[in-house]
Amino acid sequence: MTAFRFIHSADLHLGRRFGNLPEEIRGRLVEARHAALGTLAATARAQGAQHILLAGDTFDSETPTDPVWRQALAAMADSPAHWWVLPGNHDSLGAETLWQRLAAHAPKNVHVLHDIDPVELAPGAMLLPAPLPRRRPGRDLTAWMPGCATDPRALRIGLAHGAVRDFSEDGAGAEGIIPPDRAETAGLDYLALGDWHGQMTLSPRCAYAGTPEQDGFRHAARGGCLAVTLDGPGAPPRIARVETGRFLWLDLALELLPGLCPETELTRLLPGPGPARRDILVRLQAQGRAGLAEQQTLRRTAARLSPEFCHFVLETADLATEFDAADLDAIDHGGALRAAAETLAQESRDDRLAAADRAIAAGALNRLYGMLQGEAE
Predict the structure, then answer these.
(1) Cα angle 267-271-277, degrees, rounded to a multiple of 5
(2) Distance in angstroms (rounded) separating the CA atoms of residues 181 and 178
(3) Neighbours of 370 (CB within 10 A)
(4) What are phi and psi of 254, to 5 degrees?
(5) Strands (E), 38-154
(6) Is the pLDDT of residue 185 over 70?
(7) Which residues form the signal peptide (predicted)?
(8) What CA–CA distance (Å, rounded) separates 308 from 111?
């Protein structure tokens, strides 16, 4: 048979509101998630693929607004590719109203996978889907695949959403774990998984596609999808990562020591200047030790650079404060301010206090130093 190509994607989470971020950037992030549909369609055209497999969590909730799901269907209809939509844990089949509406309004090239029955994607290619009946099914929904007989001359492609390991301490979720060797035990040519938002290859025949547009700092890469080529039953799949994301989320650790210039170290760590910074979100976690003047320089540098980025937050909870008499003299040589500074300095070093209390004292000392040095908070 001729090679069969398709796009493997998942976890679009259309309709996510990003309520934990500033209002001025939420709209850009929401729009980028919708735009991912067009990007996936363009990727399919470029790769010569006629099918796009969405391995769950196409929608962020079981109750997306009408504009969210209607506009999603319109974007899919605008593509010549066939879209195969698997219910995940965020948009499980328990959302009966959602899936009924999708079925009623779906264009001919959009296929909602309600059942675990094999579906013919194209002549010689069978899809074995595992839709989630509810948010926490409590069982391995791919368990039926090994016993499902298909034409031995046809490709077998599995589509599922869920974890391949249990992250809970008590193992309470173990009943729903997908075995990482399911592709091999079920005789699948490829198992397309969703749920994990970063791309991960579990075996030569099984992978997580990740989300096409990242939504957090956990994965230090732009979103992407997988372009998969199957040359025939039993042949190893050819899997290629394709970058699709607009926004880059960077979780950066800035290690400081007394004597290092925070401005130099921060500039070295950040992506270079230019318009690309507008699409980068940064969480900068300062660590190590730094003096009062160095911490003031760090905050001033961060404040100067932050408007160039889509979002920029500086965290200093893990940055210890070092100071000496000269630092306290810079606050005041005497009087109430000097007394306050000495009290805060003493509390920041008092091992009898809780770590949180020492951190509060050090933070207050830094703010006092900054205000008296003309720093605008």
Answers:
(1) 115
(2) 8
(3) 18
(4) -105, 110
(5) 51-54, 82-85, 110-112, 119-122, 125-130
(6) yes
(7) none
(8) 42
Amino acid symbol at 40: L
Strands 224-230 and 238-243: antiparallel
- Kindly give the pairing relationship between strand 4-9 and strand 224-230: antiparallel
Q: If 0-12 CB within 10 Å is exposed, 13-18 middle and 19+ buried, where does residue 344 land?
A: buried
Please tell me the pTM assigned to this model: 0.86
- Condensed to tens digits (0 to 9), the pLDDT of residues 239-281 reads 999 999 999 999 999 999 988 899 999 999 999 999 999 999 9
Rounded distance between C-alpha atoms, residue 346 and residue 313, angstroms? 29
**Per-residue model confidence as pLDDT tens digits over 45-71:** 999 999 999 999 999 999 999 999 999
Which residues, in sequence order, are bridge partners of residue 239?
228
Per-residue DSSP letter, 168: S
The DSSP 8-state label assigned to residue 164 in this structure reads S
CA–CA separation, 210 and 182 (whole Å): 19
First to last CA, the chain: 67
* DSSP state for residue 273 in the 8-state scheme: S
What lies within 8 Å, CB to CB, of 16 at 6+ separation is: 29, 30, 33, 60, 215
In the chain, count H helices and then E strands.
9, 15
Kindly list the domain boundaries of the chain, sorted by start residue: 4-246, 248-373
Average pLDDT, the chain: 89
Residue 7: alpha-carbon gap to chain centroid: 19
